[in-house]
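debug: dumping io for the single-chain case to check the tokenizer round-trip. Nothing else runs in this session.
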Amino acid sequence: MHTPLTLRTLLLLLPLVGATAVQAAATPEEAARLKTELMPLGGERAGNKDGSIPAWTGGHTTPIPGDKAGGRRGDPFKGEKPLFSINARNMATYEDKLSDGQKALLKKDPAYRIDVYKTHRTAAAPQAVYDATFRNATRARLVDDKPSNAFGGIPFPLPKAGAEVMWNHMLRWRGVAVQMNTQSYQMTADGRSILTNINKGEVQMPYYFPDGSLEEFNKTGDYWTIRVVSEGPPIRSGEAMVGRRQFDGEKDQGWIYLTGQRRVRKLPNTCCDTPHPSTQGLMAFDEIESWSGRLDRFEWKLLGKRELYIPYNGNRLLQPASETEVLGKGYLNPDHVRWELHRVWVVEASLRAGLRHVAPKSRYYCDEDTWLCVLGDRWDAKGQLWKTLWTQNIVAPDLPGTVGGAYGYTDLIAGNGFAGQLMNSRPAQMPIKARFQSSVFTPDSMTGDGVR
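debug: decoded output
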């Protein structure tokens, strides 16, 4: 008598064995909005009610006068002056459009200010990226906080969850391959700038290979690869690092070449709050470019969209010929930072039960047009607002795109900070490349570059 009931129960439970959390893809009706009221990457086409945020009309794809391919980058808005400045005295007037971190920094340092300029919606991408984004809208899904069936475009242009926004940030359009020639500095609270790295490197996104396909991409799974070689200061010269990232963070890999040992070693952990070698340990792996980590340590909550003053169209920061000219007391020199009003998605991260992290709570502000999380705030284990993270973006019509540039943080408790990926003294500021050989991003490639 009981056997039929038992079998029936088992059959009913069978589909639940090994069940995973799956976020549904957009419907065809929802995806159609990408060709009407939304821009092809997912931002709202229309401006805001008072016109302070204009409509998106295709982005900035016109060459910047004077620019030469592979050289220094000019400022397409160099003639513009700030509309107004926000400081400690008047911040109450604008606090509804400021992040917690920026409000804390304004209160902490009376010399700090935010110069607000006219808003320009410069985000653009090749048509192939727009087409792939449209395909992803209905086929890509979030499975246990990891994308599935996504390739060649923004995976979730109509996000329904915080984790989807963060994957849009990590898989944002930033070109197929670029060279990086950069410098990094620690900024002390008393205004000193200490050189930590002079780097040259290559960055490539197989996820955006124009001749690739979803099927081919799934065979290897590397969505982002990097190789960095240190040229200075002398104590760091010759060090190198290679990294490869996949949707499944357990499969991420990293290697480092240590000059003192003259050998390549595999990094045991390229995740989370582990100090990042290329920042001399001043930033964690998951703080690079505001966020670059695994999502599985946190619960991600989508708080919605709001208008915010954010660093934007940051070619102004590239114009001084010296890195030290753009550095301040724990933050970038406000004279060289352009802020604009844009709509951002706000996502909050809370540490999952039973796990550990030096920053158990964070909040990220991600631009609706580019998906770059331009600002981030982190709270420490005591509940204190600890760090405010920032990432500049650069107008690159030759890509085309508006993509990440310098990044860093200000420690709101200690008053010091860090600025990485500065390119001021470099004759080549992020030259665009067609593609690098896959062998560039292997441990073997570093041994040939070792100089000592």
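debug: round-trip ok. The radius of gyration is 22 Å.
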